[in-house]
Model the fold of this input.
Amino acid sequence: MAIIHDDPGRRRFLSQAVMGFGLLFGMGLLGLRFVQFLVPTGTTKRNVPVLLGVEQSLPLNDAITMELGNHKLLVLRTNEGVAAFSRRCTDLGCLVSWDKRREQFICPCHQGIYDKQGRNIAGPPPRPLDRYEVVNRAGQVYVNLAT
Ligand code: FES
Done:
């Protein structure tokens, strides 16, 4: 027959050791989060406009495709100015193209159609194309990819 030793001092020591370890672990995590808050990781997006070109060199009422980093763009110049849209369809992400004759952006996957302001006007796309901020500085056109 086994004898069970019920030592209250030993039990108290183990209980305090477990609680102390949990407290230290929690404080360590909290300290780590505080250090991460104080020291930026460098993954923040930079808000630097990228030069697209001289406005007059962009074709009027036609869109050109561009790839800047991992951004796929359609840049459209009309009489209202220059607009830059993401090529990613807001339905399932296929790449839209500009149809010059219809003056519309067309998605080949499910026939989504957007007007020249990027508004979804037919098909399954649930919202307009994502649009990037365009800045015109003395005829030089820049796009802000951080938006
Ligand atoms: S992915 Fe463009 S309409 Fe479906």
Strands lie at 50-54, 62-68, 71-78, 81-86, 97-99, 104-106, 113-114, 120-122, 131-137, 140-144.
